Fold each of these.
Amino acid sequence: MIVCKFGGTSVASATQIQKVANIVKDNTARRIVVVSAPGKRSSEDIKVTDLLIDLADTALANADVAAKIQTVVNRYEDITAELGLGKDISEVIAQDLRDRVAGDRSNKELFVDSIKASGEDNNAKVIAAYFNTIGVPARYVSPKDLLIVNDLPERTFAVAEAYERLAVLAQSEEVIVFPGFFGYTKDGILRTFDRGGSDITGSILAAAVGAELYENFTDVDCVFSANPKVVNNPAEIKEITYREMRELSYAGFSVFHDEALMPVFKKDIPVNIKNTNNPSAPGTRVVPTRELTGRPVTGISVDSGFSTLYVSKYLMNREIGFGRKLLQILEDEGISYEHTPSGLDDISIIMRSNQLNLEKEERIVKRVQQELQVDNVYFRHGFSMVVLVGEGMRNSTGLAGRAALAISKLGVNIEMINQGSSEVSLVFGVQQNYEDIILKALYEEFFSAVPV
Amino acid sequence: MIVCKFGGTSVASATQIQKVANIVKDNTARRIVVVSAPGKRSSEDIKVTDLLIDLADTALANADVAAKIQTVVNRYEDITAELGLGKDISEVIAQDLRDRVAGDRSNKELFVDSIKASGEDNNAKVIAAYFNTIGVPARYVSPKDLLIVNDLPERTFAVAEAYERLAVLAQSEEVIVFPGFFGYTKDGILRTFDRGGSDITGSILAAAVGAELYENFTDVDCVFSANPKVVNNPAEIKEITYREMRELSYAGFSVFHDEALMPVFKKDIPVNIKNTNNPSAPGTRVVPTRELTGRPVTGISVDSGFSTLYVSKYLMNREIGFGRKLLQILEDEGISYEHTPSGLDDISIIMRSNQLNLEKEERIVKRVQQELQVDNVYFRHGFSMVVLVGEGMRNSTGLAGRAALAISKLGVNIEMINQGSSEVSLVFGVQQNYEDIILKALYEEFFSAVPV
């Protein structure tokens, strides 16, 4: 059994949905189809999700929503008319939207969530209806009472019971069409996944039914070894381990959200990232383990927006508890960090800059000064992390040296190097403005040069 | 005013003490002389401190101590006779030892400390007496009521009041001869410094009197840029910053104990490491700041005996508080750590192996598994840390690459690289058995090659 998920551009129009139907028909193992809301049909188009956010905002402003609802319904009608589905389903969608707008507004965020989630929910109804008209027995299934999520205020995740309940879907005679992006609490409150969206729904379902494969259909043929916007024609990745994927998705590899991998990762279910517009392309397989190729580096990613908190104190490394107390101060501010390179008497804590503001920084600096009696403490901003990832790096001597030399040939200083004791990744911290030339140089070094 | 400290080999014999006297006479700014106990006169000799430990053990075993006391007294008599000091001082030393042996044994450690410390104390009396015979007005000063240290059980350090009290020594008309290695609590209990010994006494005195210079006399001409037992004729270090010295003394540079630098470091007092046997050699100056030379690396040190605790968990870096909780577990076992290189989903904590044993390791692994729900956790042993140190490294691009390549040319894997965001050091973790060939290769790269 295969669970397949189709992203926004894969279900944006009748033509696209017809491609989806062909893909599902092509392999009878594809029994569960997770769908997103209709995405953009062209770069100037507006996603249904954005229309829905606009509708929710209008409702919360107590302005007239009729026209906004009609805009959304029209968008679906463009699809249903071309698919030959008739007018009934438009009325179902219009009524659904009116019901949601009339819903509980006591928690504004949940109200907006409910309206946003209609994008996936109604699209699943449309696609299930269409499948039936072309001879694919299909059934829309609501996440309600199945995909159970935790209560507020923690961010949304599927509770253990969700997996038990969703397992019944494996028994269905019909193809299941399931909306991505949201679940319901035990009390029936709709909550959306804030990260990974429909990817995570597909991953949860694949894990719940014990799928042999989770296919993630998007609009690219594969995952590339480097950002194609920076590097010309980067190598395609045929096979990649969960761990490599996770380390790459850290920075710049947005094809598949890393948190979405968790449910399938735990069950060792392979993932195939494929292109709805070119389904015969093999795509990229994400697997628990893989055979090593001659190439030690699988991919190179870059992400900007990092800051460092630098702290120095004479004899720091003799002071038991120093690092722990320092991390506690950051934790008290709700800040997560990425790396902590250290000398004997100094440590740099690297974190994403978007967690900081001037007040927080001042509070942290003051506390570090007062509570830890340090010699020096300050923030620095504007760093990028360049990450080389590859299972083959573990046993490859000279790789760090080659990478560092390739960077330094550019005349660029390496601010930070971090390589752990059992790593499939090597991280360089550099000044943000050099990230593109560094990515190009590293790609050249590890992918274009004569293979070692 | 100069405070000068003479190590064990510098005061091991009459000939050596005569050299000390000449050094003190040579510069009238040398007003305070801190002395160690007589050290070895040859490689087969026994240090007075070791004779005293034997005496203390004999006393604690309630065996006859007379012969042991005589051995110590004889050792001093070899010196005093040659210095022409007469027999009186031998009786002073013998009586002092009998008094100490008859002292309080309720705390065995303090009893041993008291006997051990007599080595420095009596040698200071001998040297002060000798100075007076050669026309250098001098006075032995006891640390009692001056060098006040903290109470048990924390390890020994000078309390703030010690600096105030010791400041009066600046006013002395006579040269002060002060024993190194110990102080007294407010209640008059003798306690020894467990690390840095006489070096730290000299540093405290230099800070207390606001000396212009702290001279640390030992038996080498200077600090070398690498261990001369491994590298042939390593370059001499003429000038080095506190910080470089500290990072180097971490591993293999035992000339001057890093904790001993603290008091002078806080007062920006320069230190000159010199050779009693070759006082005209300029030695190595340890200074707050220095001008950069063309050489980015000042020294390379290596130290073995490190272990790593490897921990991996999917999505670790999203978990606020993970690192802090992990460090807390180590802290609960009283373990201090050196570095924490990390990937996204894993972290290695590097620590000195001598803090571990099988039981501790099992407890730690079990707690990490249970409390942090990790995917993987284990210890690895047998690592060395290779540290490149230099103020010039901060602005030197390509250095990390050069170093990593020099290591990888040996076919040796680099287990860990750690470079911070504002560093004067670069740390490589390697397998212990390769440390010598790596030191040689790095020395070759940064000191023997054509300067960059």
Amino acid sequence: MKARVVVTLKSGVLDPQGKAIEGALKSLSIDGVAAVRQGKVFDIEFDGEDRDRVRKTLSEACERLLANTIVENYAIEIV
Amino acid sequence: MKARVVVTLKSGVLDPQGKAIEGALKSLSIDGVAAVRQGKVFDIEFDGEDRDRVRKTLSEACERLLANTIVENYAIEIV
């Protein structure tokens, strides 16, 4: 079973990497971009097919390792 | 208009960061994980509402800046 976790910065948290990308896009004359925020994505493969267990395991993984929940949000998507 | 770009390593390309996360999950006794691959996500806000233009701009941004198309795939999602 496959799952995807997307970790993004909470709104209000400064994102210098996103700002740098915004600047780089402008300097490449790629116009129309109002804002860029960068995050991380984890594609995780699980043994077994128990969706509830996978969701529970992923929540724990996010809380303990994948996301810093003080400044980041996470979203779990089971494929 | 908002869009999300997800950049992931092509299959076959080694992902040491993913491997490290896999090891860390194991050492936290978070079990059942068979494989982890890490990628990047960009949340991009656009001026205007022309979907075709946004898609074209994003393809160009991916090819020229956001993804290294030799070793990475990208997926564009317009929200």
